[in-house]
Known about the structure:
Layout: E1 3-11, E2 15-17, H1 40-46, E3 49-53, H2 54-62, E4 74-77, E5 91-94, H3 98-106, E6 111-116, H4 118-126, E7 132-138, E8 146-147, E9 158-165, E10 171-177
Parallel strand pairs: 1-6, 1-7, 3-4, 3-6, 4-5
Antiparallel strand pairs: 2-8, 7-10, 9-10
Amino acid sequence: MPKAILYTAVTLDGYIADANGGIDFLDHPLFRLPSEDYGYNAFYESIDAVLMGHNTFEKIKSFEGSYPYPDKPSLIVSTEKSLAKGVSENITVSNESAAVALKSLKSKFEKVWIVGGGATNAKLHNEGLIDEMILTYIPTTLGEGIPLFRANTSMANWKNTATKTYTNGLVQMHLVKA
C-alpha cells in the first residue's frame, strides 16, 4: 500500500524554519555529530518520489549547489509552471492542490516523501493524507517561525513506533496513524 511520509526536523516549539524561512538553526555546532546522518540516507534510499510546496522549493533553490533530489521524481505544488526550469529533469510542477498532487504520486509510487513546508504539511494533514511522520526534534526554540503545520485545522491521533535519542540531544520519533 502506498505511503506518504513527512520526514523533517522541528524545534521544541514546533517550527521547521525561522520567520524568514531560514534553517540556520539546524547547523548549530551543538547539533552536529560527525558520523551521524540521523537515518537520512537510509530513508532517502527507501523513498520513490518527493512532494513539496512552492516556498520550500524556492528555499531549496536558494541553497548553494545543485538540486538535492535529482534522482527522485519530484512534484512541486505551485501555479508558477516555469518554477523548476533548468533545475532538474525529474521535477514536475503541478497547479493542482497538494492533496490531488499527492494522490497522483501515490498512484504511481510506493513511498512519497513530503518535504513540506508548513502550508503543504497542514493541507495534507487536514485531508488525512499523511501516513507516517519521522520528526527529528532539535533541542532549541525559535519563538516564532514557520510551524510544522501552518493553519492546521484537524485533529489526528498518532502512534509512536520508534524513538531514538542522540548523544547531542536530538530526539527522533517515528509515528504512524493510530
